[in-house]
Amino acid sequence: MQEQYANQFPLQGAEGAHIVILTGAGISAESGLKTFRDSDGLWEGYNVEDVATPEAWFINPGLVKDFYNQRRKAVLEAEPNAAHYALTKLEQKYKVTIITQNIDDLHERAGSTNVVHLHGIITRSQSSKRPSLTYPINGWELKMGEKCKLGSQLRPHVVWFGEAVPMIETAVDICKNADILILIGSSLAVYPASGLINYVPNDAPKYIIDPKIPPVSGVSHLIKIEEKATIGVPMLVAGLMNS
User: Fewest C-beta atoms under 10 Å: which of 23, 72, 198, 225?
Assistant: First the structure.
């Protein structure tokens, strides 16, 4: 079955080729972390607008802090899964860059060495005055009264609705230089990350791995692998390593 997918397109994956991997909530869901927004529009029982916007932080910072403390605790208790570990093997043969929409650190804990977090990372805090000023969080709890060197309350290092995505231009430049793209566990519904696939060179093979692959139009050399991440990713990685 591995060859079934890897041979659908003549791989240009010479040793040292640049593989860009874009991951979404689906890869973390298999480690027990809930996807950002459930079918009922809620995230862990909360309205997203109440816990994931700058306005929510201004109105009720304690609620927002407690919400992310619980998400951070869940992340720290979760473990990388077979998909995370499989991706690390690609670094033995290829140049690999992972661009993730996820705020967990499961890619790093699995051993991936080049990870770009589009939406921040929950294990760090940031200044409320200067978003680029970030700090590691020891343990799972961020507390009110903890301040940055500028004197402002530290907040979760997470990009909220209504905020700019600081790493998007970096991600665009990475995608423009991809030899192969692998998209894993993303609904392609979150802007601007959803547009990154359009910056990948036309002649580059593009693999999408998801049990429910979203509609994609105007993208050439697209290969669909309708499997969950823990099955589809190890399969594709095996094919790429043997190509």
Answer: 198
Position of tokens 């874009």?
Answer: 22
Starting at the edge strand found earlier in the chain, the sheet holding 134-136 runs 134-136, 120-127, 154-158
Q: Which amino acid is at 23?
A: T
Specify the pTM: 0.91
> Is CATH 3.40.50.300 what the domain over 35-77+122-158 is classified as, yes or no?
no
Question: Which DSSP category does 153 fall into?
Answer: B
Here the tokens at position 87 are 């991706």
The residues spanned by each domain of the chain are: 1-33+80-119+165-243, 35-77+122-158
Q: Provide the angle, in degrees to the nearest 10, between the axes of the packed helices 82-89 and 229-241.
A: 10
Assigned CATH topology for domain 1-33+80-119+165-243: Rossmann fold (3.40.50)
Per-residue pLDDT of 136-170, as tens digits, reads 999 999 999 999 999 999 999 999 999 999 999 99
Fold agreement (1-33+80-119+165-243, 35-77+122-158) = no
Q: How far apart, in whole angstroms, are the C-alpha atoms of residue 219 and residue 178?
A: 14
To which residue do tokens 């079934």 refer? 4
| Catalytic-residue membership of 119 | yes
Q: Would you tell me how many other CB atoms lie within 10 Å of the CB of residue 3?
A: 12
